[in-house]
Records
---
Amino acid sequence: MPAREPKQRSHTFEEVALGFGVDQAIEEANRCLSCKKPKCVDGCPVMVDIPNFIEAVRNGNLSDAAHILKEKNSLPAVCGRVCPQENQCEGLCIIGKKHEPVAIGALERFVADWEAAHIDGSSVVHPKPFGKKVAVIGCGPGGLTCAGDLAKMGYRVTIFEAFHDTGGVLRYGIPEFRLPKEIVDREVNYVKSLGVEIELNMVIGKIHTIAELMESGFEAVFIAVGAGAPVFMGIPGENLIGVYSANEFLTRVNLMKAYCMEEYDTPVITARKVAVIGAGNVAMDAARVALRLGADEVTIVYRRTEAEMPARLEEIHHAKEEGIQFQLLTNPKQILGDDKNRVCGMECIRMELGDRDEGGRRRPVPIEDSEFKIDCDMVIPALGNKANPLLTRNTPGLELNKWGNIIADEKTGATNIPGVFAGGDIVIGAATVIEAMGAGKRAAFAIDRYLRGASLDAEEELSGLPAEKQGA
Amino acid sequence: MIRILTKKTLVPKIKEYVVEAPLIARKARPGNFVLVRVDPKGERIPLTIADSDNGQGTITLVVQEIGKTTTMMGTLEEGAELLDLVGPLGKDREAPPGGQVIGFVSGGLGVAPMYPQTKACYQAGNRVISILGARNKDLLFWMDRIEAISHETYIATDDGSFGIHAYAAQVLEDLIQKGTRFDEVISIGPVPHMKACTNVCKKHGIPVVVSLNPIMVDGTGMCGGCRVTVHGQTYYACVDGPEFDGSGVDFDELSARQRTYLSFEADSLLHYQEEMEGKKHQCALNPAK
Ligand SMILES: Cc1cc2nc3c(=O)[nH]c(=O)nc-3n(C[C@H](O)[C@H](O)[C@H](O)COP(=O)(O)OP(=O)(O)OC[C@H]3O[C@@H](n4cnc5c(N)ncnc54)[C@H](O)[C@@H]3O)c2cc1C
Ligand SMILES: Cc1cc2nc3c(=O)[nH]c(=O)nc-3n(C[C@H](O)[C@H](O)[C@H](O)COP(=O)(O)OP(=O)(O)OC[C@H]3O[C@@H](n4cnc5c(N)ncnc54)[C@H](O)[C@@H]3O)c2cc1C
Ligand code: SF4
Ligand code: SF4
Ligand code: FES
């Protein structure tokens, strides 16, 4: 996909990937073989009808293409940009065996953006929701999807969100240059247009408990509060000034807009040399943000090799182009501070790959006496997120696993408390946007069945709305 | 919805606001705080719920103007609205069951966050001994409120312009020396004040609770920015506190972390003051925003 020049973009927060033009999109669509048994669809957690939407693009029927996409995926403009396609749809595309797979994500993005630019969604009149009340906790992709689907079925849905703004990780985690917030706004406005109410600044578990919500008239609850608790390494020096969890760093910059300190009040330290620990999407985002804030040098420190890096390929590629350095097979031992308690370096040890662990990945083991020092004045541990206990701690009786994630049925999202469903990162641990959306979709179905008194485990097609409810 | 019903200037630069917030008032417990935003481009700042009235559906905030956000808040008049208000946050603090001697030692603004706990402790039937410290007599407030819920009240100023000429921690030391037996001491105020009170208590083997005020962002345990070290372990003040066993707190780390953004904060206040005089500032990284 075309992208802004690395030199130029590494100093702005404008979107990096530029997206296809119509001709490019049609040319790319022409590469698809319209497989009878499309492998790609198996790779997509929500089973988007990929060959058909691509066919519509090929024929220039872009509004049909948008329609096909939205049958399964309510946030195509987001997914086209942030899905790890190489592990999902594109990873299984048959053409990918010999050549580059069809750029499904880029086509998805193209169609969604085309639709936003050409079809005025506001003219569609949605019926006012009626019927029973459902509460959705958390306004990330999981919550938004579940709320939208329930509203389309006629339920009266209220989303409760802890922050003063919508979108969850889409807003506070993923930076503007990768997912413009305009797109998040657009998707949120769509959900609102379906009649969903959004109550901001509501920390559930504190201002209301789940039991209180149910007493006050909500007949079902969907919990999608995300993972949202930072992981530190437990090494000396982690509380020095200049050590940020990726969550704090990204929240300051994205949600509170610290990148624009001339106008916004929330500050963020600007550093000369930044070390980011970890190599997932969160780490790439933190590194690229640090670069844009003006750091001279940003280094990803990762204890395995490039082959094991969990981030999306495109992000690793973009990060490299922008000049992010990589210290692989390296593990931090301690962060060093000066007399003012500020970070002034990091002691690391070199690693090598040893035996395979249960998951089949080769375990990194330290090489004796290989300690060395990295010069840096900011360190960002970006080791993913674990379950935030705030809500679960205040919900007596809700079953959790040993990591604090909510135990919920894979197909329906049902928890052990009747009427309470859960999905997204709070259930499966830090995962992906599309998986959270898939969980939201399945839960909407199950909640509908629950509220109609139907059995939850009935084998029902989970992929779309029941026919009589479509077009609502 | 978040209307300021009344606003009072207690002493120069410290104002008391009664804010309409029925849902929060219903749930507010001693030890809880809220996060406030007053401007779409502004920071989220934590403020203790200094009092609440479930019947009226109000909470009381007492705010000391020290930087841009608190100064901006100071320009809001009765009838104006806060932009965002989230809470109640932080752990609830249970009052001792009764029959104990509890010391409440505040420094400066600390009187306000101390008030709900003092009240709960008094109502639970404990003997309450309050010590209020301030730099000078012009910075003392809520003395009458505290006196009404204390069995003994001592007032001290650093410069001797009112009451006892001493730091509050010194008054605590003197009371202990003269034979007052405290079962527990709660100390709230600036870090040096809490550190001094903790040292006194440690010396005499008295349990001491302090209320820590690190810099916060979300207030829900999501960012880890508010981390503090207590007995060698890291805690998030917003969800594990803000109250902790003073005897284990690394006060020096806390002071250092509070100063993280000192230069930014000074600039920010200066810009604000300039802007009030008509100068404009624009973002360089994303001019569109
Ligand atoms: C920096 C970063 C980059 C990422 N990049 C990618 C990527 O490129 N591709 C990809 O597929 N995935 C990516 N992910 C992962 C993806 O964003 C998450 O898997 C996804 O957002 C999970 O969705 P969710 O709805 O479960 O929760 P979240 O998006 O976490 O939303 C949860 C919401 O609930 C709110 N909440 C929490 N507690 C409460 C409460 N008690 N009461 C009310 N509200 C509450 C939170 O404020 C938040 O708004 C990334 C994650 C991060 C952090
Ligand atoms: C749990 C808790 C309860 C508090 N209760 C009260 C109260 O009842 N009344 C009151 O006047 N103040 C209270 N504070 C302190 C108050 O939050 C800060 O004075 C305020 O954030 C300063 O903001 P500013 O923009 O005006 O000043 P700035 O110039 O931005 O900062 C001045 C100093 O305030 C501290 N500070 C700055 N930003 C934050 C932040 N986001 N979170 C915490 N501290 C910050 C820093 O140490 C900083 O050096 C409390 C703090 C905490 C953590
Ligand atoms: S939603 Fe994601 S995985 Fe599914 S087709 Fe679109 S880009 Fe691929
Ligand atoms: S597998 Fe590839 S070629 Fe086949 S339908 Fe899917 S995208 Fe097209
Ligand atoms: S303020 Fe973010 S974790 Fe406490």
---
Amino acid sequence: MASGPYRLASGGRIDRARLLNFTLEGRPLRGLGGDTLASALLAEGITLVGRSFKYHRPRGFMAAGVEEPNGLVTLGAGGRRTPNVPATTVELYEGLSASRQNGWPSVDVDLMALMTSLAAPLLGAGFYYKTFMGPRRGSWMFYEPFIRRAAGLGQALHLPDPDRYETRHAFTDVLIIGAGPAGLAAARAAAGAGARVMLIDQDFGLGGSLLAAPVQGRIESWRCTLEAELRAAPNLSIGLRTTALGVYDGNTVALLERHDHAEPDAHRGRARESIITVRARAIVYATGAAERPLIFADNDRPGIMLAAAVRAYLNRFAVAAGRRALVATNNDSAYATALDLAAAGVEVTVLDERARPASSLLESARGASIEVRSGVRVERALGGRTVRGVEFTAAEPDGRIERLEADLLAVSGGFSPIVHLTSHTGIKPRYSAALDAFVPGGYAPGHFGAGALTGSLTLGAALAEGAGAGVAAAAHAGYTRAVAPASIPALDELAGFEPSPARALKRGGKAFVDFQNDVTTADVALAHEEGYVSVEHLKRYTTLGMGTDQGKTSNVNAARLMAALRGVELPAAGTTTYRPPYTPVSIGALAGRQIGAHFRPTRRSPLHDWHLAHGATMIEAGPWLRPWYYRWAGEEVASAYIEEMRLVRSGVGISDVSSLGKIDVQGPDAAEFLNRVYVNGFAKLPVGKARYGVMLNDDATVLDDGTTARFGETRYFMTTTTAQAGEVMSWLEFLLQTAWNHLRVHVVSVTDRWAGMSIAGPRARAALELALPGVDVSEAALPHMGVREVELEGVPLRLLRLSFSGELAYELYVPAERGIALWERLLERAAPLGLKPYGLEALASLRIEKGHVAGLELDHRNTLDDLGLGKMASSAKPFVGRALRERPGLRAPDRWSLIGLECLEPQSRLRGGAILFAKDDEIKGHGRGYVTSVTWSTVLEKYIALALYQGGVRHVGEEILCAYPLKGETVRARIVSPVFVDAAGERLHA
Amino acid sequence: MLRISCPHCGERDYTEFRYGGDASKVRPAHDSTDVRAWIDHVFLFDNPKGPHREYWQHVLGCRQWLVLERDTATNTVGRSWLARESAGEAGHG
């Protein structure tokens, strides 16, 4: 036996020559090329495929596609293990390993089923709320482990994912979603009109519902001809195994392309899944419809399947899912299943809820020796681990309960169009009485629908609508070439349907509405009794419609039930809001290549390689990697930065400041422009000088600080903080391009153009004189805040005498590609003076000693005055933020503003983020401020900090408390001036 | 994903742009000390449902600030043009 006892000897769209070995919980099994995991398991006679979520009831496959609520398996092992995959969507491949879920110790022998059957009365709707909220909330601690173990699906894993995921971008004229009959017809029409067409389908076969038609029939030969025609069209691309996850603004559609079947190999560059972002000029939705189950007691027994699924297993996979079948239906479509089953030699009885099915149906059934019982109603399924038959109410007038034996029960309760994607655009679905279900409420401009989605359930209508939608979509995209009509097979079709009337079941037992979430008719009734009126509430109360299948088979039935309980029409009960993704998507696919070092771009200084080669430990500073400290100063940052600080305070050090934002400002109105954006005066800044400046936002909070140097009459060089460089640039561009478009100024970011380095310390001038003979850096040539442009061996060099540390200091800028050369030259030639590099930690600590604010203080809530910079504001000119600075709230004396802190406990340290309290305050709440920056001061030999504190420096001299609840610490500190070192600036002017 | 037409660069994903607020408001003159006018400009927005003009900057392209017509109810994007062609402050342009 090649591939299972339930495999038919002939037929199917499977490759009988290609045997595929796979395992279920380690047990070796075989399937065929073209199988899904589900069809292979059914061929092997495995019908028990999982245990239900809450009650651990045995479950079998209900569907043959993405709507499957029961047959979820865990695939693979190790880092590739993937839980909760519907086996109905898994294309079988050699070596596949799967295991079933939610059974303990196994799905076949599940003791939890017994446990939960005892607890079942407790597990109804609202169980969590009632049991664990309010006065009995403490019981959660007791029950939680039991519940977590009892209810659930597959287990998530904690290992790194070894696979690779890709992100792609695509553009097309017409995107067609769904390659069933409507989609195929649309693709042919749109491509024929001359448009570039993308046709996608989540399946690995082309044809949608056509793939469930008998392989010997006329429809199949017609489908094959059409497929060949489409595959030959040069302007048509076909994407199988590709799901449209969501439709977004701008005609953008997110697609998930799966490559699992091809055994991905990250080492050979093969992706397991790709997310494709498609921008389409027009979209055709041909997403079809999903069949609904019927509701009766114990309607979840393995062997009870949707009729269309039974037909798909039979005709596509040559698997007869049973040997004695009952087909229960309220519509015509299930007769196709009955006829095909009979043709395959399965004994079939149809149980039609309708009193008078169409005579042509009855004739066909009679011709196939199928007994039809009309006007009947299934009350209960018989059997346990597999269905054994049904009890049904016979037709009126006698209405007695009868029994029939069967090992397969095909059910059809009508069809629900897949309105998910059209709903993503914000258009609510509309109720269709003919279908007793929802259809798209409309389409966005350039979007079109066709086929079962629109409620047209016959093949002829799907083909006609598809062709129409294809032509319309191509025309919307600008392609109007006439298309020859397609040949359409002669069809005699019936689409009769009568909604099942709502009435009480005559037999007890759980009648499931939502199979995946174990929601029964009793749960819906309970929710109604407790006052829930819409399906949106019902969903949240009972979990109906949640889970991996998102209620694809249950939403409409639930709405019908709720409407019947309330005595209203179905639309009044509403429908759920569908949101992306249409089917589950792995986090790996969404992340794509943006993982690890590629999570975001990393910016590197032109000196980066030098730092790495010379013992720097790097640290992230925003997007930048900067040297944190150097090995010459110590192995640990805690000791190294102190060594580096000493170097700068007593000798000379050099640090990389290339990450500072640099903006070239030029134009006849540049002086006026700078005078407007800085709070202090820039109109009179002479050529050859730099000035420290502060910018405000319009709301008068501080935006940024930095220095701007004037190198020519109309030529300025602005530096910004590393963190705010992008914001400042955009803001300057905004002002110049909108409100101030009359100013003749150009701004260009030159951050990456220049390497920047700062030489600081008492011996800084000597170091430059030694390293750059011929460049005059004397006090006369380069006084404090003086700037010069020189050429050094043909290379432009900008020298700015600026200090961040409070020491005598110079900033040097050279073109980025010359950065390392200058840096090395300085270090080599000034080595006799002890010049060494220092890192970001020391740089930041030196500025704390000097009381310079930086990113940690600039929290976009503080004003100039909060930061002790109020005196900088010019009273002689307007500047951005001036007017709103005068608001009373920004002038309040108790605002949190900048102070210095000295630690009063020699055995303790201050910590950034510590909450500040007055000495007699209770340590509770948000306090009166917080510590922004902390360092050990080499000058004062103690921990010092900058902080924001209510009332600020008015409290100088007071002793306060720094609380750090995370470590349970409270440390005493004294408020001092934020300038700890050289307040008079003598070192600066040395 | 919104698709925005940049007058220089053509139609691009909105992720190449940054949003810059209501473009129908006129910034008070630079030397204005009218606190009410500034409060209105900086803090008070109409949040209209329907057609709207707003600033977007093509930060990952030509860096130009645009005025874009967008319907806030449908997210339909309309025309766009360079902000420097139509903007100005009170008393200018």
